[in-house]
């Protein structure tokens, strides 16, 4: 999906085109966002800005914002994507069309666990509702966009390998797994599907990249320190050693 197999993971209110451009010397992909698309998720994002002092992308027109941000990366040698939140499928479908037309991937957010987002049916709530999440994937994939989902391990009642297989059946091309403290879940997801598996959580250098590679990850992603060139350089070097398809050891 991208080369090198290192992605910059979305950071709400911070991961924009400038951020992606700054990391392009190290990464093969950058997932912008997350961005709330519909009235319910946007209201939840505004609550989080007000009550939690969070940064959130809240442009007047989220679809125009996605298009403009992706357009700003047309001359950057990195594969872009957008992480999106929505309480209903149709806004994600519209975002998928924008991503398709810009050669970007769409990442459906089934990961965020803030109460405000969960209360309106976004984020982790989707993770716990496999049928609804699969509908989002199927409808978005019908546009011709490359579609994936960001998920989280260690959520009670969620069989992540089984869910990943269902998402693959719905048309997903990749799954972006926040492994939390259960790195072995990467191996379980990789064994259960033919999805492109991006491993996330704690990726800082050779030790974590080596572990995720051993579990069968196709790529890794860097979240919070994705604006730190020293971390990105260290991870990039580890990815070249551990995830290069032509590696000999």
Q: What does this protein structure show overall?
A:
This protein has 249 residues and is an alpha/beta fold. The protein contains 11 helices and 8 strands. α10 (206-214) links the parallel β7 (196-200) and β8 (219-222). α8 (160-170) runs parallel beside α9.
Helix content: 40-55%
Structural class: alpha/beta
Main sheet record: 8 strands, parallel, barrel
Oligomer: single chain
Ends apart, CA distance between termini:
22 Å
* Rg, nearest Å: 17 Å
Mean pLDDT over the residues = 96
Strand order of the largest sheet: 1-2-3-4-5-6-7-8
Per DSSP E runs of 2 or more residues, the count of β-strands stands at 8
Low-confidence stretches: none
Coarse morphology: globular
Strand content: 15-25%
Question: DSSP helix count?
Answer: 11
What pattern of helices and strands is seen along the backbone? EHEHHEHEHHHEHEHEHEH
Draw up the topology in text.
Blueprint: E1 6-8, H1 17-23, E2 29-36, H2 39-52, H3 62-71, E3 79-85, H4 89-101, E4 105-109, H5 115-119, H6 124-127, H7 130-141, E5 146-152, H8 160-170, E6 174-178, H9 185-192, E7 196-200, H10 206-214, E8 219-222, H11 229-242
Parallel strand pairs: 1-2, 1-8, 2-3, 3-4, 4-5, 5-6, 6-7, 7-8
Can you tag this structure with a few keywords?
single chain; 249 residues; alpha/beta; 8-stranded parallel barrel; 8 strands; globular
């Amino acid at each position: 999906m991208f080369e090198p197999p290192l992605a910059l993971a979305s950071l709400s209110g911070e991961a924009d085109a400038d951020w992606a451009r700054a990391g392009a010397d190290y990464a093969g992909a950058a997932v912008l966002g997350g961005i709330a698309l519909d009235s319910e998720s946007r209201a939840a994002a505004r609550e989080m800005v007000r009550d939690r002092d969070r940064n959130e992308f809240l442009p007047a027109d989220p679809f125009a914002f996605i298009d403009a941000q992706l357009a700003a990366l047309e001359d950057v040698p990195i594969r872009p994507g957008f992480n999106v939140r929505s309480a209903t499928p149709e806004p994600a479908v519209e975002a998928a069309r924008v991503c398709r037309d810009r050669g970007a991937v769409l990442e459906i957010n089934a990961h965020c666990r803030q109460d405000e987002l969960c209360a309106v049916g976004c984020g982790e709530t989707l993770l716990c509702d496999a049928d609804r999440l699969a509908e989002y994937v199927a409808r978005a994939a019908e546009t011709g966009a490359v579609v994936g989902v960001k998920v989280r391990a260690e959520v009670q009642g969620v069989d992540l390998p089984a869910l990943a297989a269902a998402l693959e059946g719905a048309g997903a091309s990749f799954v972006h797994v926040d492994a939390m403290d259960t790195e072995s879940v990467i191996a379980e997801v990789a064994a259960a599907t033919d999805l492109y598996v991006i491993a996330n959580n704690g990726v800082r250098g050779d030790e974590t990249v080596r572990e995720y590679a051993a579990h069968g990850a196709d790529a890794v992603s860097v979240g919070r320190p994705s604006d730190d060139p020293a971390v990105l350089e260290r991870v990039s070097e580890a990815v070249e050693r551990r995830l290069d398809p032509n590696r000999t050891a």
